Task: structure prediction
Amino acid sequence: MILHEFMSFEVLRVIWWLLLGVLLIGFALTDGFDMGVGALLPFVGKSDKERRIVINTIGPVWEGNQVWFILGGGAIFAAWPILYAVSFSGFYLAMFLVLAALILRPVGFKYRSKRESARWRNNWDWALFVGGAVPALIFGVAVGNVLQGVPFHITPDLLMPRYDGNAIMKLLGLLNPYALLAGVVSLSMLLMHGAAWLGLKTEGVVQQRARSIGNVAGIVAAVTYALAGLWLAFGIDGFQIVGEVVKDGPSNPLLSEVTRGGSWMQAYSDRPWIVIAPVMAFVGIAMAVMGLRKGKEVSTLLWSKLGITGIISSVGLTMFPFILPSTVDPNSSLTVWDSSSSHLTLFVMLICAIIFMPIILAYTSWVYKVLWGKVTEDELDSNAQSY
Amino acid sequence: MEFGLVELSRLQFAMTAMYHFLFVPLTLGLSIIVAIMETVYVMTGRPIWRQMTKFWATLFGINFVLGVATGITMEFQFGMNWSYYSHYVGDIFGAPLAIEGLMAFFMEATFVGLMFFGWDKMSKVAHMIVTWLVAIGSNFSALWILIANGWMQNPVGAEFNPDTMRMEMTNFFEVVFNEVAQAKFVHTVSAGYVTASVFVLGVSAWYLLKGRHTELARRSIAIAAAFGLASAFSVVILGDESGYNATHTQKMKLAAIEGMWETQEAPASFTLVGIPDREARETHYAIHIPYAMGLIGTRSLTEEIPGVDQLVAEANEKIRSGIIAYDALMTIREERDATPVEVRATFEEHSADLGFAMLLKRYVEDPRQATDEQIAMAADDTVPGVGPLFWAFRLMVGLGFSFIAVMIYFFYRTSFKGMQYPRWALRAAVIIIPTPWIAAELGWFVAEFGRQPWTVDGVLPTALSASHLSITDLLITLAGFVIFYSVLFIIEMGLMIKYIKKGPYMDVDETDQWMERHAHRLSTHDSKGPFAAEPAE
Result:
């Protein structure tokens, strides 16, 4: 077990920061359209047939897509254990809401069409709406809070995460105006993405409705994203590490001194190349909106993916090296340099990722290829196991 | 017991984990049974096997989805409710969970969609491979989860790092090839196979009693009985292996399960039944089988198995040694790199017992201030609830042996009695459907309740592991889970029953074509075969 010494701790930490981003983006690009489709369901499908078509566009793939989320959770646990500990317990009730919504969703897909009753099906359609819209919103709210900093601290003796305040106030505290704005960015971007997916997988009236909602959602996403950026530049303090930055020290967040002040936007003068992220975001959204209007299919979905990649990576790149800043005790803030797993664990996990990620991408692509094509009424009738 | 934060957190975890495990065993076993059926279909081309595959796959799907959905809760609850645990052991424990996602869960979840939607989109062989990949993915998933769980029972391949105040991995392969994890894995998946076998057997028996779908039912019983028989033996044999492992890894758990208060002279006797009494340190009305415990636990006639009292005395010593480690740790935490070498050396010497000092945190803020009385109380805390463990274990083992009997009987009738089953046996098969679930839940209860007061045996006490949440937080989510999960359970059971009553979906076209092609052979010998439709005896 000395092989890991060949890769420096610092490099491994950066790689795992990148991989964390890859997983979150992978989740948003795949399960993101499932959530978007769920949230669009009651509005783009009016009859039962139409709704079944909408559900069956994602029927065979949502389960695999959702694993990006599970894997993201697992990777945070394995590579950034204290981040997992602080954020999941700190956002406790919000996490519970996400969980409830995410449990509702698979059950809704699977069970909705298993009974004929119109009331049964209508109830599940709204459950699917909640299962799509609520996580989409909350994930954005969470990012909005991370950018502002979160009120936690870590005890000096045993490094215990503490997040003060009573249950309800903690939840309401998350729902501040900036976080809600970020929530709107996230929801509208995934609505656009879901619409792009439906544009590809459906035809006729369902496709039309999806495109017109997607068009509006894309514009909302671009405008709110720009607003959130301006607000971040002028209304929210950034965080800085004071003094020398130790990049390969032990993972103890309290070892580095952090101050609050200045702007997050400082990152754009320190590392000008990162401007590529917001550019990707705006170009992607603009092209996706155009594509939705012109009725393009594959390219619209790809542009939408580019836009989402731009939005998510702009958050990470702007905050780097911070992952979760603390407002009440800035020294407790979690950064890339002080909240990772050990050198050995990061290395072992990287090897696993290098082995399995290509395999995953290969079979996932194969599955999408097998399922290529529009979902039609005839197809639903011929397969007794469709939803 | 007063219900504080830790108790509520434990209650919630236990409830959601046990609920999750209502769906897991059936997924593990039924995925393989469905894959076997589809393989027979691909090899013989007979439509009845395709019909069976699709029918059992439908029930598999209804069950699978709740397994997946409730699994999300499991993955996130460590961070939500056990944040100090997550920090303290995430460096080791998180890895198998992440690998589970990479290697197993991604595979099963990606292919399960094709399994249901891909019938007309690919060749027969390709679809069969997809079904097998779902089955293999599910079972690999169990492997990595049990590697993670096995580490909580027997924390190998890791050591404490005072600079990061947590356990860190020192040897990945020791974690993966942990003997406890490997035995647990085979024991647990075998239990899943038994569960699915009993389920298929029971549902098929119900069809035979009703005289419905008899062709499907007889063939299904044949598969379930053969598969179930092998699995039922495997469960018991690997259960025994787990017991043997516990003799040197979790002595206290073993002593508690056996109600063994005092160390007996080797070879110890096995207490068949009795009433363990914690106050009196005695198991009343005990019926002993001489030598049995010594043989099972040590596989020798000379090795001793320590009793509860001796282990408590040892814990007392370890707590005192742990206090020394704690004292050195606090110096290291303060002085960091300036720590004198002797202090580091002292810490190294005693760090294995650090967890025992942490047991004192329940009674005193600083373990170094603990009185003898508090140390004695903490030592006594290392004894888990003997009574519940003693009985849960015996009930589980009893059920395990009875599954062997059931499977032997049905295998015998299938193989030698022309697939004819008496009505009483069919009725019994329907009635026992819930029992493998009871056995599986009891198994988890024994494993995890028996691990108390630790989350990681000897390393981190449960009381310290919980997140610093408010009671209101816990009450809200507990109520939420109870209501939400109950509703889902009712819906799931309703759909299961509906689809069992509805029976298989007849693929008329394909059946007709096949009958036409094989008309000649059918008219000569096959029609008198054991699969010809006829009602049960």
About this structure: The mean pLDDT of chain A is 91.
